Amino acid sequence: MRVPFVKMHGLGNDFIVLDARADGVPVMTAALAAALADRHTGIGCDQLILLEPAQAADLRMRIFNHDGGEVEACGNASRAVGLLLGRSARIETLGGLLSVDPADSGVTAELPAPRFEWDQIPLAYAIDTHTMPVAWDRLEAPTAVNVGNPHVVFFVPDCGSVELDRLGPEIEHDPLFPERINVNVATVESRQRIRLRVWERGVGETQACGTGACATAIGAMRRGLTDREVTVALPGGELTIEWTAAGSIRMTGPAAESFRGAFESEDYPA
Known about the structure:
This protein has 270 residues and is an alpha+beta fold. The protein has two domains: 2-104 and 255-267, Diaminopimelate Epimerase, Chain A, domain 1 (Roll), CATH 3.10.310.10; 118-247, Diaminopimelate Epimerase, Chain A, domain 1 (Roll), CATH 3.10.310.10. Helix content is 15%, strand content 41%. It has four helices and 19 strands. It has helices at residues 30-37, 75-85, 164-172, 210-222, and strands spanning 2-10, 13-19, 47-52, 59-65, 70-71, 89-93, 96-103, 106-111, 135-136, 139-140, 143-146, 150-155, 182-190, 193-200, 204-205, 229-234, 237-243, 249-253, 256-264. The strands form two sheets. The protein has a 17-stranded mixed sheet that branches. The chain has a two-stranded antiparallel ribbon with strand order 9-10. The chain is globular and about 55 Å long. It starts with a strand and ends in a 6-residue tail after the last strand. 43% of the residues are buried.
């Protein structure tokens, strides 16, 4: 069976998009997602995105990380899907209901209000998520927030000097985080600008992470370090994050289609 796909990216964070609203898309498993995501023997991506029908929204978006694990949310992928649809839409995800609105200046995704309760992150035990009394080497006193998926954010003088390839997996798999964690290291450059690097669970360090930008901006705003609208600069480019008066998070930035193709389902394990 020949299966069509669209390869897309948001600031270099890249995706394979499969539209299961049409016939001809195999049942997605962790093994199949990981095989397609492999950059040497598959198509290659950070995340595989599966679009499905939904009852309470325009469509449902399922997200599989590079290792095949299914996760709750992906901000860059939300914008990419908005670009692919070419219209405003409500999208159902495991992390909640969100909306997308494409425009000439980019795509805006509006996410639900952030959650800060320790059991909503989730953490292994009750702890203050505003300033957590924990440390890994020089990374200490982070803030934790769930923006559809779980993040921990460290504010440091120079995020570029952090050994994220070493500390990222150590923190991701720490028993404090029973569902693992996305690790953000950020430098606040002004009340309107943050520089950020992200280690994504199940992926590694990426060029950009939309939910990481949201979580980091919310963490900075919650600590009074920035205004309620900021630019977050990632290695792949910039996003604008706004924490609205109503409590939702608005993320605006570019998305792009790279190419279209097809694969034979028999070539990949189910």
